[in-house]
Design brief:
Helices cover about 15% and strands about 40% of the residues. It is α+β, with helices and mostly antiparallel strands. The protein has a single domain, classed as Hypothetical Protein Aq_1857, Chain: A (Sandwich), CATH 2.60.300.12. It is globular, with a radius of gyration of 15 Å.
């Protein structure tokens, strides 16, 4: 399992290899909301999946769902919350921060992606 921390590399002691640690962060408010949603899920074996897929008005869009781990997934952790990502999504989202805003004009979950060249007004689509 890869953990988000201040370092960019983690050493796999069993294999003696340095592994790339992906930097995906959850804010405290996002982590709390995810934990609440996870507790409401009937299947405790499922984890949050953060992903990118084709669509939206800018070409790509963000997605989040609860899902079982799949071959090739990376298991990451931030703010004590474990989540899954596939390799393609990791490439698009490295360095991103996931936030949750539930204020009067709250947008819900929002991904702040430093790799996005352009974004849509809805905040869910990017290029």
């Amino acid at each position: 399992m890869l953990f988000h921390d201040e370092t960019a590399v983690r050493v796999d002691k069993k294999k003696g290899l340095a592994l790339r640690c992906w930097m995906i962060s959850l804010t405290e408010s996002a982590a709390k909301k995810i934990e609440t949603l996870q507790n409401e899920t009937a299947d405790a074996s499922k984890r949050l999946r953060i992903f990118v897929e084709a669509g939206g008005c800018s070409g790509l869009e963000y997605g989040m769902s609860f899902d079982a781990p799949k071959d090739g997934d990376q298991e990451l952790e931030s703010q004590g919350v474990q989540f899954l990502m596939d390799a393609t999504s990791l490439a698009y989202l490295d360095g991103s921060v996931v936030d949750f805003d539930d204020g009067l004009q709250g947008k819900g979950f929002e991904i702040k992606n430093p790799n996005a060249k352009t974004t849509c007004g809805c905040g869910r689509s990017f290029n």
